[in-house]
Amino acid sequence: MSLIVQEIVKDIIPALIAKDKKIIEAIAGKEKEVDFLRDNIKDYLVAITHQNIHQEQVNEAFQMMYTVKELEQIADIVTTNIYHHAVKWAESDIDFSEAGKKEIYDYHIKVLKQISRAIEVFRDVNLEKARAMKEKYKEYADMAREFERHHFERLLADIDKSIASSKVHLEIIDLLRVISSHSTNIARILLEWSDDMKGM
């Protein structure tokens, strides 16, 4: 499930910017796969927790359910919000400024790194990487604000492409920031779960 979510986040931004309708439509179809996996993983975890298992295993199942929820929310952002922008963008004759395009690409790469870290943290139960992820999220949130400031400066400079693309540009940056937040939540729940286990 995490690899499918990672794939659709990776593909959606280049497809949006290139106005690649074929890839945009293919991404929309991935939602069914994510929903199928979500339902089956949750059903399995609920079934397991109804058996005679230790509290530690119950907590682990909860952590997995929480991770599934975060992955699902990332997928929803892509297949609903960003997809909606991508479809409209592909039909328009508007383009981003070169500076705006670079900022979206650069921020997209940072968000993809955060998703990769989340997968590693979950797979390896790596608390050190989980803590590092929280620091990275703060750095990336600051970067999003900086890019927004740059965009507003371009608006003040009356750059035509920035004016025409402003709404989409700002929403894409913000949606990517939210994806980064959901990715970081996977690390946060691991840290909370670890602290709870220490207190038992």
Structure report:
The protein has 200 residues and is mainly α. The chain has a single domain (2-198), classed as Methane Monooxygenase Hydroxylase, Chain G, domain 1 (Up-down Bundle), CATH 1.20.58. It has six helices and no strands. Helix 1 (2-18) packs antiparallel against helix 2, helix 2 (21-49) runs antiparallel to helix 3 and helix 4 (98-124) packs parallel to helix 6. The longest helix has 39 residues, at 160-198. It is flat. The protein starts with a helix and ends with a helix. The mean pLDDT is 92.
In short:
This protein is an all-alpha fold. Helices cover 90% and strands 0% of the residues. Helix 4 runs parallel beside helix 6.
List keywords for this structure.
mainly alpha
Detail the topology: elements first, then pairings:
Elements: H1 2-18, H2 21-49, H3 55-91, H4 98-124, H5 127-156, H6 160-198
Helix pairs in contact: 1-2, 1-3, 1-4, 2-3, 3-6, 4-5, 4-6, 5-6
CATH homologous superfamily name?
Phosphate transport system protein phou homolog 2, domain 2
What is the CATH top level name?
Mainly Alpha
Distance between the termini: 31 Å
Instruction: List low-pLDDT spans.
Output: none
Helix tally equals 6
Q: From the coordinates shown, what is the CATH architecture?
A: Up-down Bundle
